[in-house]
Amino acid sequence: MKRPRIALGALLFEGNTLSPVITGRADFASKYLASGAEIPAKLASTNTEISGALEVFRGADVEVVPLIATHGGAGGRVSAGCYGELRDELLGRLKAAGPVDGVYLALHGAFIAEGTDDAEGEILAAVAAVVGRAVPIAVSCDLHGHITPAMTRHAQILIGYREYPHDDTRETGGRAATLLLRAIRGQIRPVSRFRRAPMILPAQRQRTKGDGPMREIIDLARAREADGSVLAASYFCVQPWLDLPGVGVTAVAVADGDAAAADRVAEEIVRLHWNKRREFLVSTEQPAEAIRKGRALAGGPVILADAADCVGGGASGDSSVVLRALIEHAPDQTAAIHLVDPETVAEARRVGVGGRFRARLGNRLATLGGPPVVAEVTVERIEPKAAFRYSGGLMGGVEAAIGDAAVVAIGPIKVLCTSLSSYEYADEHFLALGLDPRRMKFVVVKNPMNYQQVYAGAPAMFVLDTPGPTTCNLASVGWRRLDRPCFPMEDGFEPVFASG
Length: 500
Ligand SMILES: [Zn+2]
Description:
By secondary structure, the chain is an alpha/beta fold. The two termini are 34 Å apart. Helix content is 28%, strand content 25%. It has two domains: 5-280, Response regulator (Rossmann fold); 287-471, no CATH class. It has helices spanning 25-29, 38-43, 49-58, 80-97, 119-131, 149-154, 169-184, 214-226, 259-275, 287-295, 321-329, 342-351, 428-432, 450-454, and strands spanning 5-15, 32-35, 63-75, 102-107, 137-141, 157-160, 190-197, 232-236, 249-256, 302-305, 335-340, 356-361, 373-389, 399-410, 413-418, 442-445, 460-463, 498-499. Helix 5 (119-131) links the parallel strand 4 and strand 5. Zinc ion binds next to loops.
């Protein structure tokens, strides 16, 4: 067989319809954004899907046709202009490449833009139209992907990350590439099918390592791969903050020529997920109560999880609700919190290190938490054009720009203010500005999951009842477009597991 030509690209974004943030090209560029021949150079040594796929293709004598590769993180919708540019560049490069034998795209599932609720479906339909129906398309998605009928219609191979925290992005790219190569060589005839449960779930209990409620679901998926029922079985917990029809937890199976088998396995997995739904619900604490309990414990860091302000889920990262509670209830305790707050950074730069000023902190975009927190602060550090390299996870090895940054102190409480928002994997952002969270009494984290791994030895971790577009209290959201009935807003109804 002649040397296969495979087009490869990545276009990831996690949309959140509850978020006020409009995402533009700069937000993609601040994570990674590479075109054509730049892609291998920029991403080969990272933990990205592209890196894993490139490794498989290098070992298989493949001519790789790199398209574009970028991750916009999460936010509200992507601006129409930015989405159009990225889509057109991907499709333009694919058309210019001439005939290819296969396509691999790393996507998220949940890419929404101004004017479209299903960017991935649109892109895959356009890719299929360019390459022709006989050319296999492989897609990998985030475990929180929103899987739409257009996606399984156009991607014969559709798989997801197996791990949350997402430490297996590179392996996922490798698995997708391996299946694609087998399809190109005529060894398999892949077909993908999904089943969806009428539910959305908070992320806090979706940990894939250990004995949480995901354990049996994972074991079932691996068993159906091992017994040969299907080539790949994936569970998609879905980004729950999408007020759209057709949103729910899904399972996708890829079978060898047997669509009915794929459908059967997808149904079996999503039914198990449904049966375990109540195990995923979480209880929360008021910030003041969590701080009171934390103060009574010896040592630190006590983790205060403000997961409702999770940039990685689409929030603005500028909520100062927990800062207000710390100032009120623990002004004598060391603490670290991150706020996206370009105004405070600018003021800190104006007065300089050692200077003091009356700051208005956060809550400009996150208005559900009240007005900005007004406090007298001392500027402790200023870092123009700050950046850090991710230590792991789906951005592992990628350098993130957080813009001009400053640390301002309110007594022992340290506030890391940055001009740009950033996906929170571990504590890289604090360390980049000289703050060691492990030496603090309290650390405010703004994600629902990754901190559980990062601060595994912490004396206590509290999930806070705070307002925001990534709340774990899904029943509190005023849903308008979501299909109903839907757990956890409703329960005790007979579920229909929609297929596609
Ligand atoms: Zn995810």
